[in-house]
Amino acid sequence: MRLVVLGGGESGVGTAILGKKKGYDVFVSDFGKIKENYKEVLSINNISWEDEKHTEELILNADVVMKSPGIPEKSPIVKKLLEKNIPVISEIEFAAPFTTAKTIGITGSNGKTTTTLLTYHLLKQGGLNVGLAGNIGKSFAWQVAENKHDCYVLELSSFQLDGIINYKPDIAIITNISPDHLDRYNYDYNLYIDSKFRITMNQTEENYLIYDNDDEAISNWLANHQIKAKKVPFSITEKLEQGGSITENNEININLNEQNFIMPINQLALEGKHNVKNAMAATTVAQLMNIRKATIRESLSNFQGAEHRLEKVLKINNVQYINDSKATNVNATFFALDSMTTPTVWIVGGVDKGNDYDELMALVREKVKGIICLGVDNKKLVEKFEGLVDAMIETTSMTEAVKIASKMAEKGDTVLLSPACASFDLFENYEDRGRQFKQAVQNL
C-alpha cells in the first residue's frame, strides 16, 4: 500500500512515521520548505521526501493520501488526486484505526484550544494516561505510533474534519459556531457549519455530543438534522434538565446521569462568560470519564490558560497589556472586547477572511478609546471604525504599534492585541505575532 503525505510539518511527519511502522510504502511531498528537524526525522526513519515541489508521478500513484489541514481542496495536486478517486484524508482519519484509545474530539470556531487544554488538564490531574493532539501539541499519528496513551484529547479544525470518513470520537464537543474561514467554503456559512458537524456524523448511541445550547447555528442545525449520539447541552441563559447550567447562586451546575457537579463561577481560574462555557464543556467530559469531583474543582481553579489567548503580559505605568493574538476571527475578538472592564486601546488587523465587523460596533463604541491597525491593507477597518473612536492610526510594525499604544493609553487603561484576522501578511503565524507583541511590550 502506498501512502503519500502532502505537507511535511508536524501532522505530515507523524503520519509518515505511523505509516512506515504499519508497513506502508511512504512518500512525503511538501510544496514549501520542510524544516531541518523534520528532514532529519524522515531520513532517520528511511522515509523518502521532497520539498519545494510536488512530483506528480510520485504522488498520483498513491493508494491513500494524507493531506495537511493547511492545504486547500482547490490546490491543483489535490484536484488531480480527487479526479483519480484516490482517497484524500486527514491525519486523524489515518491514525484512528491504529489505536484502541478513547478519543475526545473538540471543535468550534472559538474556545476550542482553551477547552482542549482545560479538558486535558482535568483528565491528567484525574490520573488518566492522556495525550494531547490534533491542532495542538505533538502529532496524533506520531503518538499513536509510539502507543503511549489510553485516551486522547484532540483539537479538531473544520479542515481536519473535512478529511474524515469513518473517524468517530467517543465524546465530541462543539464549543460554538460563528463565521470563519469562509474563503475555504465558497463564502457559504452553511457549508462551514456542516463541516463542524462532521464531528458527530459517525457517532453511535454509545457516544456523546456536548454543545453550546445558546448558540444559534448549533441549535438550528440540530433542529433540522438527526444524530445518534447522546446530546449533552450546556447553557448560561437557561436551566437544562441534563447538561450544564448556571444556578441562582452563580455556580456552574453539571447534571449528568443523576450526578450533580456544582462549583462557584468566581473560583474558576479563567475569567469571562465564554470561559464559563469552556469550563462547562471540559467538566462534562471529566464527569463522563469518572474523574473525582474534588479533583475537577481543584483543576478548574488552578488551570493556566492558553498562550496568546487573553494572556496578561505586563502592567506598565498602570496600563495592562493583553496578548490575544489567537483571535483570528471577529467572534474571538468579540469575546475579548466583551471581557474588557477598562478603556481599551485596541490593536487589530491582518489578513481578512471575509470578516463582518458589524457585531463589534457596539462594543467598540462602549469600550475602545483608540484603534491601531496593524496590517498591510487596513482599508476595511478604517472605513468601518473611523469616527467611532478618538484616534485611529495605521502601522505595519509590531514595535511601532506597541509604542503608539503606550502613548495613547493612560493610567488604568488596557492595551489589547486582538487582531480578528489571520497573521500571514506580516508574521509567520499567530504565535509569532503574539511573541513579537510580548517582546515589544517588554522593550517599552
From TrEMBL:
The keyword Cytoplasm applies. Its EC number is 6.3.2.9. The keyword Nucleotide-binding applies. InterPro entries: Mur-like_cat_sf, Mur_ligase_C, Mur_ligase_C_dom_sf, Mur_ligase_cen, MurD. One of its GO terms (biological process) is cell division. Its main location: cytoplasm. It is found in: Cytoplasm. Gene3D superfamilies: Mur ligase, C-terminal domain, Mur-like, catalytic domain, NAD(P)-binding Rossmann-like Domain. Pathway: Cell wall biogenesis; peptidoglycan biosynthesis. It holds the Pfam family Mur_ligase_C. GO terms for molecular function: ATP binding; UDP-N-acetylmuramoylalanine-D-glutamate ligase activity. Residues 308-421 form the Mur ligase C-terminal domain. Keywords: ATP-binding, Cell cycle, Cell division, Cell shape, Cell wall biogenesis/degradation, Cytoplasm, Ligase, Nucleotide-binding, Peptidoglycan synthesis. ATP binds at G108, S109, N110, G111, K112, T113, T114. Cell wall formation. Catalyzes the addition of glutamate to the nucleotide precursor UDP-N-acetylmuramoyl-L-alanine (UMA). PANTHER family: UDP-N-ACETYLMURAMOYLALANINE--D-GLUTAMATE LIGASE. Belongs to the MurCDEF family. NCBIfam families: murD. This is UDP-N-acetylmuramoylalanine--D-glutamate ligase. The lineage of its organism: Bacteria, Pseudomonadati, Bacteroidota, Flavobacteriia, Flavobacteriales. The gene is murD.
